[in-house]
Amino acid sequence: MVAVGERLPDLELSDLHGAPHLLAAADGRVKVIILWSAECPAVRLVEPRLAALQRGWPAVVSLLFVAPNANEPREVLRNAARAHSIEPLLVDEGGQVVDRLGGTTTPQAMVIDGEGCLRYRGAVDDGTMRRSEPTRHFLADAVTAVLAGGSPEPAETPTYGCVIARGIS
Description:
Shape: globular
Number of domains: 1
Strand order of the largest sheet: 2-1-5-4-3-7-8
CATH class: Alpha Beta
Structural class: alpha+beta
Low-confidence stretches: none
CATH topology: Glutaredoxin
CATH superfamily: Glutaredoxin
Strand content: 15-25%
Radius of gyration: 15 Å
CATH architecture: 3-Layer(aba) Sandwich
């Protein structure tokens, strides 16, 4: 597992249309990876907040949704991605991204800086099913820090959501 502050190995995933996406390319772009599920209610809770964040980010920030669950067939993913306006949706077949990035739940956020280093891993914010309005905005703060050339504080937070289904066909 890559530790916060370390450079990611070259990781490439395909989206639902078959197009490849490099997650760790040192291309100057900040990448925000969201581990996403077609079926997790906690994901539905953060989707509107993610959309609002994305609208406020500059063009050098890319938001990439990754589907890590082995039990969600592509047709289910396609339908849910269309219904929730998720584009692109990358599929982590075999769990390579989850293994390397230390993913445990959906939703879970990772921020990768323009040099390909992992800078943040954890929750989007501190919202939960019982407290739908967050009081802390971990992902927004992490992206702001990285864009300013700094390090997020905190760099890791506990996540809240659905456990990623591994090894299920």
